[in-house]
Design brief:
The complex is a heterotrimer of chains A (207), B (339) and C (102).
Chain A (H helix, E strand, L loop, with lengths): L2 H25 L3 H21 L3 H25 L3 H5 L7 H22 L10 H7 L2 H12 L1 H22 L14 H17 L6
Helix pairs in contact in A: 1-2, 2-3, 6-7
Chain B lengths: L1 H36 L15 H11 L10 H17 L9 E4 L2 E4 L8 H22 L3 H32 L4 H7 L9 H14 L11 H4 L9 H26 L10 H4 L1 H29 L5 H28 L4
Antiparallel strand pairs in B: 1-2
Helix pairs in contact in B: 1-9, 1-11, 2-9, 3-4, 3-9, 4-5, 5-7, 5-12, 7-9, 7-12, 9-11
Chain C lengths: L5 H21 L3 H25 L4 H31 L13
Helix pairs in contact in C: 1-2, 2-3
The chains are: A mainly alpha (207), B mainly alpha (339), C mainly alpha (102).
Chain lengths: 207, 339, 102
């Protein structure tokens, strides 16, 4: 067996496992098991990236997806009450229609990839160039921090915004109301509105 | 070709055998040292100085009934110990115990593989081992186990970031993610210029391995023993083995990445020859590992456990700024001293 | 050189994309809808890396890093919304979350 067949076989296994786990993600009943299936997808996808000699991205996918995002999912599931959700009906009424449309779309993708793909101009980053930089990680670093530094910095702004947003959204309202001097204007108006609403609903209370 | 295959097989066997063989004496050593520190004797009945105590314990565990609690998620309950055990052993495939040995006209790398993303590989596997803990706690269908796993997943996600942040400083100085290369680059152990990073890394490693003073996930006195409360028999022994293998891994990492591996044996090479220098380097490496393990046990005997909020505050309000400071120091050093 | 040919990677990416899309369309549990969105992003990542290697252009790989950033940000904010929502409405069923007024 030459190395090309071997690599193709490895690819076949990884790709089939990816698709199988992905189907499990959308088919399984229990969200915790879905999350674990997603971990399976990520792992096999990392294998595919290694096949493509993108080692850094393989490791990054496992660290970010498996190590952060899906753990966050699991954490949320444990915080929420799942028992009720699991017994409920799982699929929408339009499921058959969606599957048909999805299948058509997939066929379209396949036909388009088979028919019209023409590999365009070769870029400057040939395998020889990558090896000259010292490997995939170094080459990616060169591109990212030399040519695309500004987008990279902007990505950090996005992450900061996400962190702040997540904290604001998930934070519980403080039990004890703060004194009005510490309150922001919007908060103060919201509180006045709430008070006015309860007065309206309760006519017994004198105005 | 065949030679290469044999070399790979032998190396992988050694990489797998190190944690398996070192862990039982390690557990015994920990119990003896803890006993000494706490003015007790420690295990001393089975074999000379009680050295076979761990084996006796293992036999006991294997003989126990294998129980799965009612209401547990069977599949996940069975899977959880493996999810913890497998990554902690997989990580050994990049851990260097030395650099190179030139012998019989060949070059033998004293590491299983030289992966160009070695550090990231270890970080990836550490992040995966969270699943074992989360699944064990969730699948057990027990309040204590669930509380333990909730605590530990929050703790491990947070401290994992600090682990990575401390290593970024090293990567900046060494200019490589490959572990043997990092060891080779250290003319002076990185613990000296990056003393802050070393502190951050050691704290994060303690928290990642769920050891005192960060042993909240298993806190015997409040959570019985946390996420593996419902496990018994050989399944429990898997958790135990994984924890100690992780500890050993952290010790090897600290020794290789921050303490310079076999440093300063490489400077003696012109005087005592290559073979002796390599052996000396191995000796230094192993002694550093055991010193660090002793430090682990010492901390466990000395420090009280953090409260949960203190632990989180320590991570985000102390270690994160320190880690960033470490990164700043590393960049300045890279531009001046290491330029 | 890329083994097997680029087309296989593209088909894999398309398959992951479509499965994710189906998940979004079909599932009623909000958490699983979110996981399906992650699948869509993963499909896009495969396509990016495949093209990057086939065209010898590192930009494709650099772009995946931005895609990862977006995925992380999306997961953080999305899960925060889910937590807030489940506190507020006590359900994660997309069919029941259809009022504009809280």
């Amino acid at each position: 067996m030459n190395s090309e067949t071997l690599l193709s076989l490895i690819f076949a296994y990884l790709a089939l496992a990816c698709v199988a786990f992905a189907v499990l993600v959308i088919m399984l009943r229990n969200p915790v098991q879905c999350a674990l299936a997603l971990v399976g997808v990520v792992f096999h996808l990392a294998g595919i990236f290694i096949l493509l000699r993108a080692e850094f991205l393989a490791a990054a996918h496992i660290i970010i997806y498996a190590g952060a995002i899906i753990v966050l999912f699991l954490f949320t599931m444990m915080l929420l009450n799942l028992g009720v959700v699991e017994r409920a009906r799982q699929f929408h009424v339009q499921a058959p229609l969606a599957i048909v449309v999805g299948a058509i779309l997939f066929l379209e993708f396949v036909v388009l990839t088979g028919a019209t793909i023409t590999v365009g101009a070769q870029g400057a980053h040939s395998p020889a160039w990558v090896a000259g930089q010292g490997g995939n990680v170094q080459a990616l670093g060169q591109v990212l921090f030399r040519d695309y530094l500004l987008p990279f910095e902007i990505a950090s702004v996005l992450l900061t915004a996400a962190v702040v947003g997540a904290i604001v959204l998930a934070k519980q309202k403080p039990r004890r109301p703060r004194s009005s001097s510490q309150m922001g204007v919007g908060e103060w108006m919201a509180e006045r509105y709430e008070k006015a609403k309860t007065r309206e609903q309760d006519p017994a209370e004198p105005r | 070709m065949t030679e290469l295959v044999i070399a790979v097989i032998v190396k992988s066997l050694i990489a797998f055998a190190i944690p398996l063989l070192v862990v039982p004496p390690l557990i015994w050593g920990e119990r003896r040292i803890l006993g000494r520190i706490q003015s007790r004797i420690g295990p001393n009945r089975v074999g000379p100085f009680g050295a076979f105590q761990t084996l006796a314990d293992a036999v006991k565990l294997l003989g126990k009934e294998d129980m799965i609690p009612a209401g547990a998620d069977r599949a996940l309950f069975i899977l959880a110990p493996f999810l913890l055990f497998v990554p902690s052993f997989m990580a050994w495939s990049v851990v260097p115990i030395g650099t190179e040995l030139h012998i019989f006209g060949r070059v033998i790398g004293l590491y299983p593989t030289d992966l160009n993303v070695g550090l990231l590989y270890i970080l990836a596997l550490t992040s995966v081992s969270v699943y074992g803990i989360v699944m064990a706690g969730w699948a057990s269908n027990s309040k204590y186990a669930l509380l333990g796993s909730l605590r530990s997943s929050a703790q491990m996600i947070s401290y994992e970031i600090m682990l990575g942040l401390a290593l970024v400083g090293v990567v900046v100085l060494a200019g490589s993610l490959s572990l043997p290369e990092i060891v080779r680059q250290q003319q002076v152990p990185y613990a000296i210029p990056l003393i802050i990073g070393t502190f951050v890394f050691v704290c994060a490693a303690l928290a990642e391995t769920n050891r005192a003073p960060f042993d909240l996930p298993e806190a015997e006195t409040e959570l019985v023993s946390g996420y593996h409360v419902e496990y018994s028999g050989w399944r429990f022994s898997f958790f135990f083995l994984a924890e100690y293998a992780n500890m050993l891994l952290a010790s090897f990492l600290v020794s290789a990445v921050f303490l310079g591996g076999g440093w300063p044996a490489q400077f003696l090479e012109p005087y005592i020859g290559h073979l002796w220098a390599t052996l000396l380097a191995l000796f230094f490496m192993v002694s550093k590992v055991f010193l660090f393990l002793f430090f682990y046990f010492w901390l466990r005997a000395t420090l009280p456990r953090f409260r949960y909020d203190q632990m989180m505050n320590f991570c985000w309000k102390v270690l994160l700024p320190l880690g960033l400071l470490n990164l700043a120091v590393a960049t300045v050093l890279k531009l001046t001293v290491y330029a | 050189m890329i083994i097997p040919a680029l087309e296989y990677y593209l088909v894999l990416g398309a398959a992951l994309f479509i499965i994710g899309l189906l998940g979004v369309l079909v599932r009623r549990n909000l958490l699983i809808v979110f996981m399906s969105i992650e699948l869509i992003l993963l499909g896009a990542n495969v396509t990016f890396v495949g093209f990057a290697v086939a065209l010898n252009n590192m930009l494709g790989q650099a772009f995946v890093i931005f895609s990862l950033t977006v995925a992380a940000a999306e997961a953080a904010v999305g899960l925060a919304i889910i937590v807030a929502l489940s506190r507020h409405r006590d359900t994660l069923n997309v069919d029941e979350i259809d009022t504009l007024k809280g």
